């Protein structure tokens, strides 16, 4: 596949990253003026630690970035695009987070910019924001994202935003005309686009502000002690209200693309109007739906009903998280541990399928986009396309489930030797990571509730027939031969199964303690014929001695 072939296919693809990237082609039909790179941005509030929401926004933006590069025939190293991870660390601390130490110390700094508050963790950082910014960079680096970190407080303090701030002061009344109609009467009385920093307390003030001299950056306001103060709004002596700040950032940095959650829809509308007043242009982007918990309720950090990225990576993989996040961003997704196993296996199925697909199908394949996100390029191909796992995650979970809560890595790999030729963890690093994940998932979610039921009389008869058939086959019989044996037993009318599905469900519930499971032939080959016959004997014993 040539790059030109990829460009032509990408320009007609219906995959959402390409549809989003098309907006940028329309924005700049002849490229960005002056040959400047197209700028993608994601925002982050450093009052808390990065989480799955942070991951999904950077990942999805990266996918659009790579799709745009494909549309114009560029490579990451060509410098045609940039991704900025922007930290809003000039914000004033509104309340003390519940999950930090030294909360009493932080309480004495309410209202001050996050970048001017001591680090409560005592980790040697210059401020609370510096600590959380370092965590953000560590977080993004962990996943190999290609980005540039930008700190709001640094830009305010070193004067990089001063020209844009002067423009805000020049347009102060026009911005008020946009914002005041959207506010409650009480809020209107104190609202100002500019939030000065108190010279007496260092707090970010929510007070009316008069623009004295826009060109010099001078403003007048009443300080917390009641005194009227005239001071510069430049050089870190003020910040902007959220919606004005967002618009100013777009204007100052020249942002071309930024996505955001549905909860910021109104902010996006107002900021879009403000950036136009400033003389800039609202970025392209999409509004994505938010995550829900397993009950379909909105995830709340204060409720603790979400799923952390550490939890996902304990029970799954980074690629599976990306795969789960990939489909239609405009649809809400339930986020809980129960979705992880299927996401893992679906990712690998889609990844294996790439090599067999036509180009138009590849461009709609989530794994194709994920492999290109941070993996570089091999011509126009996605690196790693067509690879597969020798054992599915679902099969691993079933194996670990029958081994019990005390199962070990060594045990699992010894059983894997029944199924793959070279059961060496070093040769199968992805599978080895999933072995650890399966052990953790079984320990925390399967083993505590696992219960194998006693078979009915008809099921017991079918299990006896299966046991006799297994006694007759070779110990190294292939999975397909074993699957055929199971299949033929289930079709026998004497056992009374209305469908093969009922027979397989009986096998899962009596042998594995689950209502669903893997291809039975594959499980028998993996677990071993002798051990499978032992499971059958245990099930038949339960039938004879019901609890």
UniProtKB/TrEMBL annotation:
Pfam families: tRNA-synt_1f. The keyword Aminoacyl-tRNA synthetase applies. Its main location: cytoplasm. Its EC number is 6.1.1.6. It is found in: Cytoplasm. A motif ('HIGH' region) lies at residues 46-54. Transmembrane segments: none annotated. Signal peptide: none annotated. Keywords: Aminoacyl-tRNA synthetase, ATP-binding, Cytoplasm, Ligase, Nucleotide-binding, Protein biosynthesis. It catalyses: tRNA(Lys) + L-lysine + ATP = L-lysyl-tRNA(Lys) + AMP + diphosphate. A motif ('KMSKS' region) lies at residues 298-302. The keyword ATP-binding applies. ATP binds at residue 301. GO terms for molecular function: lysine-tRNA ligase activity. PANTHER family: LYSINE--TRNA LIGASE. Belongs to the class-I aminoacyl-tRNA synthetase family. This is Lysine--tRNA ligase. It comes from Pelagerythrobacter marinus. The gene is lysS.
């Amino acid at each position: 596949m040539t790059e030109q072939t990829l460009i032509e296919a990408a320009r007609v693809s219906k995959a959402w990253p390409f549809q989003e990237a098309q907006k940028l082609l329309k924005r700049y039909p002849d490229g960005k003026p002056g040959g400047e790179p197209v700028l993608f941005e994601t925002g982050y509030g450093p009052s808390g630690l990065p989480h799955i929401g942070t991951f999904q926004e950077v990942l999805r933006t990266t996918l659009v970035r790579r799709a745009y590069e494909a549309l114009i025939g560029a490579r990451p190293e060509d410098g045609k695009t940039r991704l900025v991870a922007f930290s809003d660390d000039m914000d004033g601390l509104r309340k003390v987070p519940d999950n930090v130490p030294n909360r009493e110390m932080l309480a004495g700094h309410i209202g001050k910019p996050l970048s001017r508050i001591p680090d409560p963790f005592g980790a040697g950082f210059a401020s609370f924001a510096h600590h959380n910014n370092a965590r953000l960079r560590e977080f993004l680096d962990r996943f190999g994202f290609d980005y540039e970190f930008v700190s709001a407080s640094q830009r305010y303090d070193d004067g990089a935003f001063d020209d844009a701030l002067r423009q805000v002061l020049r347009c102060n009344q026009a911005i008020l005309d946009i914002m005041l109609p959207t506010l409650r009467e009480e809020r209107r009385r104190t609202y100002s686009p500019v939030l000065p920093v108190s010279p007496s307390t260092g707090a970010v003030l929510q007070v009316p502000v008069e623009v004295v001299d826009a060109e010099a950056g001078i403003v007048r306001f009443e300080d917390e002690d009641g005194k009227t103060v005239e001071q510069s709004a430049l050089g870190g002596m003020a910040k902007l209200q959220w919606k004005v700040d967002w618009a100013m950032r777009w204007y100052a940095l020249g942002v071309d693309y930024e996505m955001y959650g549905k909860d910021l829809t109104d902010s996006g509308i107002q900021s879009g109007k403000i950036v136009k007043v400033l003389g800039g242009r609202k970025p392209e982007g999409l509004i994505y739906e938010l995550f829900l918990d397993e009950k379909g309720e909105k995830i709340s950090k204060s409720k603790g009903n979400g799923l952390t990225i550490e939890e996902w990576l304990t029970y799954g993989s980074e690629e599976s998280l990306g795969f789960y996040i990939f489909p239609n961003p405009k649809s809400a997704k339930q986020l809980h541990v129960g979705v992880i196993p299927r996401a893992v296996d679906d990712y690998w199925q889609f990844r294996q399928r790439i090599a067999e697909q036509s180009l138009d199908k590849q461009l709609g394949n989530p794994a194709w986009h994920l492999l290109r996100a941070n993996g570089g390029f091999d011509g126009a191909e996605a690196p790693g396309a067509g690879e597969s796992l020798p054992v599915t995650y679902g099969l691993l979970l079933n194996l670990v489930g029958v081994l019990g809560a005390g199962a070990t890595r060594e045990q699992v790999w010894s059983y894997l030797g029944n199924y793959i030729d070279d059961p060496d963890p070093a040769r199968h690093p992805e599978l080895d990571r999933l072995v650890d994940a399966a052990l953790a998932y079984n320990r925390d979610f399967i083993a505590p509730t696992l219960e194998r039921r006693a078979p009915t009389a008809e099921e017991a008869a079918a299990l006896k027939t299966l046991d006799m058939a297994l006694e007759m086959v070779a110990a190294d019989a292939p999975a397909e031969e074993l699957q055929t044996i199971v299949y033929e037993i289930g079709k026998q009318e004497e056992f009374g199964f209305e469908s093969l599905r009922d027979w397989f469900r009986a096998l899962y519930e009596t042998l594995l303690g689950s209502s669903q499971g893997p291809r039975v032939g594959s499980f028998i080959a993996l677990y071993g014929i002798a051990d499978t016959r032992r499971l059958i004997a245990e099930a038949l014993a339960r039938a004879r001695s019901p609890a």
